[in-house]
Design goal:
The protein is an alpha+beta fold. About 45% of the residues lie in helices and about 40% in strands. A hairpin with a 2-residue loop joins strand 2 and strand 3. The longest helix is centred in the last third of the chain and has 12 residues.
Length: about 80
C-alpha cells in the first residue's frame, strides 16, 4: 500500500520529497519504510506516550530520485 502511495505522490503531484513519521516501537512499520528506501532523518524525543512510557517518533524521508532508483531495484528483484 505504501508502495502505491509513493507512486501516486510522485506521479500525480509536483513534490520532490515525501516525509513520514513512525513511532519507535513500531519496528514493522519502520522496516517497511526502510525497505522502500526511506532514510532516517531524525527523531522527536518523548513524542508519544504508550502505557505512560515516552517513545520517540522516527522522522523519515524519500526524494523523488531515491524513489525512482529504489522502485527500479524492487521491480528487478
Amino acid at each position: 500500500m505504501l508502495f502505491n502511495m509513493l507512486d501516486l505522490a510522485f506521479a500525480a503531484h509536483p513534490v520532490d520529497k515525501v516525509n513520514s513519521e513512525v513511532i519507535e516501537y513500531n519496528q514493522g512499520s519502520l522496516a517497511v519504510h526502510r525497505n522502500l528506501g526511506f532514510v532516517v532523518e531524525g527523531r522527536r524525543r518523548n513524542h508519544k506516550l504508550r502505557d505512560g512510557e515516552p517513545f520517540a517518533a522516527i522522522l523519515l524521508g524519500i526524494t523523488r530520485q531515491e524513489w525512482t532508483d529504489r522502485r527500479r531495484q524492487l521491480a528487478h528483484g
